[in-house]
Amino acid sequence: MVRPGGRSAQVQASVHAAVHELASEFGRDALTVPLVAQRAGVTPSTIYRRWGDLQELLSDVAVERLRPETAPGDYGTLHSDLTAWVEQFLDEMSSPAGRAYIRDALLGNPDGSNAGQCSAYAAEQINVILTRATERGEKAPGVETIIDHVVAPLMYRILFRPAGLDAPYARRLVGSILGPAGP
Amino acid sequence: MVRPGGRSAQVQASVHAAVHELASEFGRDALTVPLVAQRAGVTPSTIYRRWGDLQELLSDVAVERLRPETAPGDYGTLHSDLTAWVEQFLDEMSSPAGRAYIRDALLGNPDGSNAGQCSAYAAEQINVILTRATERGEKAPGVETIIDHVVAPLMYRILFRPAGLDAPYARRLVGSILGPAGP
DNA sequence: ATCATAGACGCAATGATTTTGCTTTAAGAT
DNA sequence: ATCTTAAAGCAAAATCATTGCGTCTATGAT
Known about the structure:
The structure is a homodimer of 183-residue chains.
Chain A: H1 7-26, H2 33-40, H3 44-51, H4 54-66, H5 78-94, H6 96-107, H7 114-136, H8 143-160, H9 167-178
Chain A binds a DNA duplex (30 and 30 nucleotides) through helix 1 and helix 3.
């Protein structure tokens, strides 16, 4: 039974806020359940009961933090829209903070859909871009193609090979799917 | 100062073994340092001193577990070699145990090269396949291309979208890079 | 072959976190 | 207004993490 705005919601909000504050104050690795609980004005047992453990909580917070806040910009062509989006994606995700959030998101319970949610966010953004391109009359590949051959390589490198990852690389990926930049 | 075969090596071996055993007995999430220590016949402080914490230890074990034990098979053509390797890769990595190991490997210390090591293993295997193809006179793409457009999409789906991941999908990825299976 | 030494381990005490039974609170339904 | 019930608080108990100190072991030099 969901009770939006009720006490539960307030607790969740203050706990999430506490995680943010403490993470930026003392660093993500200094977080502990009792610490977060104190800052949030809650008892530790509340957190343990609702989230199970710190990892679940962090995973939860990470997903919220990874949700895009704005629709992809419109730059007139599919190629430029996608390039811009990919560059921003890379920027946000490859920072130390971004990588930490991604790793946290991956840590949630077995098939708790936290990680899936992240992927869904990206798919949604890409879908907006592709739909817009189609409406303009441009020929556009499928969302899956972009995910497989642009997003996935970026994410792979972010997670497994933090070095050798820059904007030119990202643009090259876009080019390899859409062909070289149009006129 | 490395002392292979010494007490240290034995401790490491029995601790690793204990992790394996307990993980398959009680599940990875039931592991605790004291539990592992007891099974390994060691005191918890030994583990804390050597590995720091449970995550480091699990990350360590995961990398060892993810190391390929055998060179990629030779099936006569690049296409079949790569397809076979990819199918095996998918098999091993997409199982619940495989995914758990990957996640653990990602968890090691900040940029402790554990995750990088995994990526290096894959690159090495692929390199063997591509070199063999080149020696046969086949035209072969670079290692990076295979990583970006075959390994990365697989890994992305393993981590973020466990559903909709099967051998045909993997073969399609290979086909999209090498072209349809040749004679 | 023996010795000196650095590194690693065991033990045990201490401090922090996690878990659990019971009680209390407040949101939503009657 | 009262009732029902999910969720939170409280506090004790259990478990886990951390650390100082002494001991042991394998190594390299004598």
